[in-house]
Amino acid sequence: MKTNFTKLFNYSFIPGLMILLSCQWSSVQAQNGLAFDGTDDLVITTGASSLMAGSTAISLTCWVYPSNPTPQTTSYDGLCGFRNNSDGDFYLLHYSATTLECRFRNSAGTTFDIPGGGIVLNTWQHLAFTYDGSMLRYYHDGIALDSLPATGYISTTGDDFYIGGLPFQTFIFNLIGKMDEVSLWNKALSEAEVNYVKSGCIDTSDVSLQLYYKFNQGIAGGNNTAITTLTDASGNIDGALNNFSMTGTASNFVDGVPGGGSTINAGICSGDSYTFGSQTLTASGVYVDSLISVNGCDSIVTLNLVVTSVDTSVTLFTTVLHSNTNAATYTWVNCNNNYTPIPGQTSQNYVVTTGGSYAVIVSLNGCIDTSSCHNLTFAGIEENNIADYIHVYPNPIADYLSINFDQQVKDADIQIADVEGRIIWNTKHNNSMHLKIDVSQWAAGIYVMKVTSSDKTTELRLLKK
């Protein structure tokens, strides 16, 4: 069976979703981000509030890698946004180890706060904060986690836009961590649009896009001292890089969000194929492709493909059939009765009690296959009738194996071996009528007990649960 990627990857485009017309990911390599040292690193876009003045719809998105485990009153970590602490706030701030402060303060000075959750330290995660004129919404990794009614708008035209820190009175809440892909809109992004932004699909010609910083400048960890501004891909206002050393990895361009785009985990059965873009895949592995939708959004997609192979071989131990596939689902069937399932026989082993032809259907990770049929006639299993005088119970065994002997069995040698032929227990029976063996430490599986008395020998199969 062939699996087609286009059936699994959801290209659900919404009329008017104009941000998807052009995606800017151009290679499968990780793009750059900025590392902030928590001391004085800051990106400032001067007078950017003029881009939002009077708008009743705003959206702010970013990728962040927070690293401060103890943000507190004097050392909160500002991520990005506007903050004049009077009549023009719209920002994201790392408030505690696992939470944000998502604040909108309108021109009347009224404050609306969402305590954004889901923050994970030292991990890249996508954040979005939106306002549609009546409701604030907070998204973490594309999922809407919280909302709050709000009113008003921002009217100031001279406030700066900050990345990596936010002003408070006479000092700055500086970020310890990394930032990437910051965008500002004078529209309220829908949940679908937030997820497309998260995937890197942003049309830089969209009139609603006011600022878009990709951070894909310079050389990650290299000497970037000649770079003094952060380029705005929307073409409005570049951000000024303040106090960055621009060399090394502490205060400079570094590797950003890994890969970008989307990740798919998929599995197929051995013998099937998986169509991924222009590739037809039949082997497990990690594959990367740049896939173009009908609307022209070029998105990097990573595929983790696992191919499951079902081993249908069966080992026969006299009267016990053993499937050689572990940790699977088993159904033993009667080949002579149109492969009808045998009631109750769903374990890895089938102790056959009646001659016939039998097979096992094995299901593993959603893949199903059937073994060949095995014929048992019970002819010649025992060399003589010594087994009539030996009584073994229980079988299957749990913790103890009991062996009872009739008087006809004298001076018998007893060996118990595993399926590899290794002898794990042996003794010489000297006319005692009963033996009890502790098998609690034995591994689950099939064992062979061989009893030899005078010129008589028999083998009995044991099953340890």
Description:
With about 475 residues, this protein is an all-beta fold. The chain has two helices and 39 strands. The strands form nine sheets. Strands 2, 4, 9, 10, 11, 15, 16 and 19 form an eight-stranded antiparallel β-sheet that branches. It has an eight-stranded antiparallel β-sheet with strand order 8-7-6-5-12-3-18-17, with no helix packed on it. Residues about 1-30 and about 380-385 have low confidence and may be disordered.
The Cα radius of gyration reads 35 Å
**Bulk shape:** elongated
Derived from helix and strand composition plus strand pairing, the structural class reads: mainly beta
What is the number of helical segments per DSSP (H or I, 4+ residues)?
2
The amount of beta strand, in percent, is over 45%
The total strand number stands at 39
Estimate percent helicity.
under 10%
Task: Give me some keywords for this one.
single chain; mainly beta; eight-stranded antiparallel beta sheet; disordered N terminus
Short synopsis of the structure:
The protein has 465 residues and is mainly beta. The chain contains two helices and 39 strands.
Topology at a glance:
Elements: E1 2-4, H1 5-8, E2 32-37, E3 42-45, E4 58-66, E5 77-82, E6 89-96, E7 99-105, E8 111-114, E9 125-131, E10 135-140, E11 143-149, E12 161-163, E13 165-168, E14 171-174, E15 176-185, H2 191-198, E16 209-213, E17 229-230, E18 239-242, E19 253-255, E20 262-269, E21 273-276, E22 279-281, E23 285-292, E24 298-308, E25 314-317, E26 320-323, E27 329-334, E28 340-341, E29 349-351, E30 356-364, E31 367-370, E32 374-376, E33 390-393, E34 400-405, E35 412-418, E36 423-429, E37 434-438, E38 445-453, E39 456-464
Parallel strand pairs: 1-21, 20-24
Antiparallel strand pairs: 2-15, 2-19, 3-12, 3-18, 4-9, 4-15, 5-6, 5-12, 6-7, 7-8, 9-10, 10-11, 13-14, 15-16, 17-18, 21-22, 23-24, 25-26, 26-29, 27-28, 27-30, 30-31, 30-32, 33-34, 34-37, 35-36, 35-38, 38-39
